[in-house]
Design brief:
Length: 135
Amino acid sequence: MSIIAVRQSLEVALFSMTPAIDIAWENQPYTVVVGTPFVRAALIPDSVENPEITGHFHRLVGLFYLEFNYPKNTGSVTAATRAELTKQTFKFRSSFVNSGVTTTISGTPEIGRGSNVGDWWILPMRMPWYANILS
């Protein structure tokens, strides 16, 4: 259940941002509207860490991966502006709580290199996170 709490805390934080943007969630139906920006969100869990020998807790780690999709040939600044806003919401050491699980952003979010794909300019962002889970 812990990974569910991690997912929900990060997704709620993304959904709660203003101004709002359409979000394509993992394994959820989403209809792309031509010309309307949206962000594609994915939770990428990594290996589980056991940072102490008593076994009283373990640490979930991973990435919250976003792709900002903006209409092609409209420039890169609008997508970059949204990514920078998102970077402020998920800044280093920010914490989000759901069902008693605290998910912490463990590094500064990284904005990647944008690229043209079909009718879209796509700008990726990755945010490392961890959650300490008591056993």
